[in-house]
Specification:
It is a single chain. By secondary structure, the protein is α/β, with parallel strands linked by helices. The chain has two domains: 260 residues, Glycoside hydrolase/deacetylase (TIM Barrel); 98 residues, Roll (Diaminopimelate Epimerase, Chain A, domain 1), CATH 3.10.310. It has twelve helices and 15 strands. It has a five-stranded mixed beta sheet with strand order 1-2-3-4-5, with helices on both faces. Strands 8, 9, 10, 14 and 15 form a five-stranded parallel beta sheet that branches. The chain has a three-stranded parallel beta sheet with strand order 7-13-11. It is globular, with a radius of gyration of 22 Å. The two termini are 22 Å apart. GO terms for molecular function: hydrolase activity, acting on carbon-nitrogen (but not peptide) bonds; metal ion binding. Its EC number is 3.-.-.-. This is Polysaccharide deacetylase family protein.
Length: 409
């Protein structure tokens, strides 16, 4: 009977649905050819990303590229970007400029709870995800005096990155396209094997052969996951919302981001969130050599474990792109390759109401919810979504807690 059901699911193609589910899961797909000059299209009805409000400081700081702020309904956080020429790139000067931005932001907007600063080399600055910053700092308002003493050379302050680690070059272009469907790069028979594994998981759930498509169905529990963490503006807003709701989530962290913003990764671990691996550079792994894939995963593991003091157990490939080599290396490193069942498309900015309705409609036992920590609409809808899940007696938790002891060989 089970074999018949599996065959039926395979034949159904993209319309595959799990027992009791209200919405199809994202079926594993073969790779699609990319047209020259193609960029990811917006979903129907999607809108451009929001334009964040900016603060203007007086007196002006010439090196300040921008100072943006945003709230989550409870607190507001600002993030400033400073661009320096080589002559100005001394730690003492970086500290002093960061202090000017922090104090100016708190003075200009008294409602701010936290100000974060990222200092970059002006010539090589490539935005968030480009070359690592030279210096970063996170300053909650109650810690302003501590940061001032540190910036003046009179004390220590742990919520900083002083640029001691220089990232190795990425083995491939950084992936800017978001996860949409799991995409298998391999033979036709390999794709069939992946679809069989995914189909069986819709009825049984749990980890099988190093793969996790869905959690167990016998409890009203789903995993809440965020990709691309940590982001210096959105991370404190997300962590604040989860802390207020008493919810723990899994953050799939980019290794280089963990290096640049170590204090946010420590914050995740300290409040009981789970930290997973999203590669070191956020690159597509298919097409890389075994050594390059191993280095991407191992470097991210090391960066994360150094900060959390815990082993990394779960891995999500950027873009959902994976191959037999990806799975082999991940399993050798003790990582479970983790996909998702519920994707509201928050990265496409379809609107808060659309993201919210998709989240609610697709919530299911054993589900794995995919959101992005740098998607503004994820911040907007999260509070209400957590309340709806609670009203439905659906527990949202980490991937590790979802699968528990139900992993299978």
């Amino acid at each position: 009977m089970r074999a018949f059901l599996t065959l039926l699911i395979l034949l159904s193609g993209p319309a595959v649905v799990a027992q009791g589910a209200l919405h199809p899961v994202p079926l594993v797909q073969p790779p699609r050819p990319t047209l020259p000059g193609e960029v990811q299209p917006l979903a129907p009805g999607a809108r451009p990303a929001e334009v964040l409000p900016r603060l203007t400081l007086r007196p002006a700081i010439p090196e300040l590229e921008r100072l943006e702020y945003r709230g989550n309904g409870f607190i507001e956080v600002a993030h400033g970007v400073l661009l320096l020429t080589p002559a100005a790139q001394t730690l003492a000067h970086e500290r002093a400029l960061a202090l000017q931005v922090v104090e100016g932001a708190f003075r200009t907007r008294p409602t701010l709870e936290e100000v974060d600063v990222s200092v970059y080399d002006r010539a090589s600055y490539g935005g968030f995800g480009g070359p690592l910053p030279l210096f970063t700092a996170s300053v909650p308002r109650p810690r302003l005096m501590d940061f001032r003493r540190y910036a003046e050379g009179l004390g220590v302050y742990e919520r900083v990155y002083e640029g001691a680690t220089r990232a190795a070059p990425s083995p491939a272009p950084v992936a800017r396209v978001r996860e949409q469907t799991p995409t298998f790069h391999g033979s036709a028979s390999g794709l069939l094997t992946q679809r069989v594994a995914q189909s069986v998981s819709q009825f049984n759930g749990g980890v099988r052969g190093g793969l996790l498509f869905k959690g167990p169905l016998d409890q009203r529990t789903a995993a809440l996951t965020f990709d691309d963490a940590p982001h210096p503006l959105y991370e404190p807003l997300l962590l604040d919302l989860l802390r207020r709701a008493g919810i723990r989530a899994t953050f799939f962290v980019i290794g280089r981001n963990a290096v640049a913003y170590p204090y946010f990764v420590r914050d995740m671990a300290e409040q009981g969130d789970e930290v997973g691996n999203h590669t070191y550079h956020h690159v597509r792994l298919p097409g890389l050599s075994a050594a390059q894939v191993r280095d991407e995963l191992l470097s991210a593991n090391r960066a994360i474990s150094t900060l959390t003091g815990q082993p990394v157990r779960y891995f999500r490939p950027p873009g959902g792109d994976y191959s037999p080599l990806t799975l082999q290396v991940a399993e050798q490193l003790g990582l479970t390759t983790t996909f998702w069942t519920d994707d509201p498309g928050d990265f496409n900015n379809p609107g808060d109401a659309v993201v919210q309705s998709r989240l609610v409609a697709r919530l299911r036992p054993g589900g794995i919810v995919l959101l992005h920590d740098n998607a503004p609409e994820a911040i907007d809808v999260l509070r209400t979504f957590l309340q709806v899940a609670r009203s439905r007696d659906m527990q949202l938790t980490t991937v590790g807690h979802l699968v528990g002891r139900r992993s299978q060989p």
